[in-house]
Amino acid sequence: MSTAVARRLPDIRSLGLTAGVAIAATAVFLLVSRALVDDAYITMAYARNLAFHLHWGLIADETANSATSPLNVIALGAITAVVRDGVVAVGVLFVGSAVLAARWLAELAVATELGRALPVVAVGSLLVNPLLLSTVGLEPYLTAALWAGLLRYGVARRPVAFGVVAGLSVLARPDMVVVVVVVALVLRPGWVRAVGAALAVTLPWYVFSWFVLGSALPDTLLMKANAAWESFGFWNGPLLYLEIFPAVTALAFLPVLVGLAALAGLLVVRLRVAWTPWQRAAAAAGLGAVGHYGAYCLLHTAPYHWYYAPLIVGTTLCAAIVAVRARWVVVAAAGLACAALVVDLQHGVPWTRAAISTNWATATEYELMGTDLHRIVGRGRIIGAIEAREQAPGLGAALLRLNNLHLDRDQPPRPVEYRLRYQAHKAPSAPEQWPVDHWVDGPGRIVLER
Asked: For residue 433, which of 21, 281, 283, 447 is within the disulfide window of CB 3.0 to 4.6 Å?
């Protein structure tokens, strides 16, 4: 083989990987694009207002700070300004995130002398995971790509690049700071320059948010703490989903069990010898997932299914790295991915509802309700909840008061003139009520009360 041909092969492989991942991600998006969860449409509303009016808020008349992922909104807003359609923008960002994750994982594989199968195994597993697919439109796939970047630049000891990706990760989800810190502790990319780069990326947004939007962190932060559902909190939430969606939940969380087993093996190895670069990368992914899960358990967060995305992403990356290193395990990983794909396809082609959903209704049913309720506009009542939390003793309340130092508290909430109430039975034919398919109860109805 000539030298010129040898140099050309990596470029051909890179193009082939990019094209293959882009095609696969596009096919997956077409499968799920009609079954996006309601929070995805909230994000699209923010992105639409940003794209067309340079306005930050869910509705055009009022500024709000309830978007959990500023980076997701900004990216979708930029894409929406070009493609002029929110769902198409979600698809473009979804495909772009998958391609970016594959590229960074391919570079990680070269840096750690792993096989070229790493991006295929890891991204392929993420693209067929039914829980992750039930979050499309939100930020899990974007954060998965950034997680791959953290591993890639952390292993390479490139502190500035690591810091930039870390800053973007925190903008993608503030709680990703837990993952960033854990990964940095394991990979040690160089703290001073990494922190400086991360602050350069994040501070402009958080300063703007603090002064202009009224709080540095999103208002939805209040909804996460101490919000468990009766007997189900974040720590045992998967058992609830296993009871209601047994097949898809089992396949969604099986990579978690595999990743935790791989992490346990790595920790045992660390007791005897120092980790090699690929072992450090795998351990960083797994420990980041465990750290995020532990933090949410301590917060007593509600078990919304998309909150488990970091746990699944981190353990999947850990398992994929170990599987590629032990080459024969790749066959088992491929079998697991095929099983998940079969379950995904059995859920419908295309999906009409997410495989794992905690919505009161399907996307089509919400669309019908939204069209009928278009004339009704109500202002959020978050300020009262914020002020109640600020009165509590302790450091948490003090930090919350600091976070909301510039919040405009003078605007009284609009009076509540209407209320939507769910009833767990099939709707008769009548005005101002809509039939829905509840994720637990089945057929029911949403009734508008005056």
From this structure: 447
